[in-house]
Write a structure and sequence with these properties.
Blueprint (H helix, E strand, L loop, with lengths): L5 H13 L31 E7 L21 E3 L8 E6 L5 E8 L7 E5 L1 H6 L9 E11 L6 E3 L7
Parallel strand pairs: 1-5, 2-4
Antiparallel strand pairs: 1-6, 2-5, 3-4, 3-6, 6-7
Length: 162
């Protein structure tokens, strides 16, 4: 004679109901919208202030294509930075003489250790960086940083009065 499966099923059902709720994480269906408490994707971090050496573009770079696709014009306010996003407006201050200029980051570089910015010859002249000097200690502070969301701009720390 066969035994009835009812006691076995009852034991399995009781064990299943007693299982802790934390045993398996709850899955969200891919079709469901994310929870309202989910965090938005963080914007890339932008340095607030950098201090280091500045150099300027050599004559051989005049007219060459920069990272943004435009030719390098030695008379413009363009500059190169490895860390600031392209299109960033930044205040560059020569810490040796206090002279400042506003530049637009349009290229990548410099690729020489210890340097934080390459300036166009016109921008270098504005802060008192002469060709015979070659380098100057500068502070670079972002003023306006383009955001990845359809071209909006984030105002930097240096654009607000202290």
């Amino acid at each position: 004679m066969r035994r009835s499966p009812t006691p076995l099923l009852a034991a399995l059902l009781a064990a299943f109901l007693a299982w802790p709720a934390t045993a398996a994480p709850e899955r969200q269906d891919a079709r469901d919208p994310p929870a309202a408490s989910a965090k938005k994707k963080a914007a890339p971090k932008v340095p607030k202030r950098q201090v280091g050496k500045a150099s300027f573009y050599a004559k051989m770079f005049n007219g060459r294509k920069m990272a943004n696709g435009k030719p390098m014009n030695p008379n413009d306010d363009n500059a190169a930075s490895r860390t600031l996003p392209l299109g960033t407006k930044a205040l560059v201050t020569n810490l040796e003489n206090g002279k400042s200029t506003v530049v637009t980051i349009e290229d990548r570089g410099p690729y020489v250790g210890g340097r934080i910015v390459d300036l166009s010859p016109a921008s270098a002249k504005d802060i008192g960086l002469e060709p015979k000097q070659g380098l100057a200690t500068v502070e670079v502070v972002p003023l306006e940083v383009p955001q990845p969301d359809a071209g909006s701009v984030k105002v930097g720390d240096a654009s607000t009065p202290p």
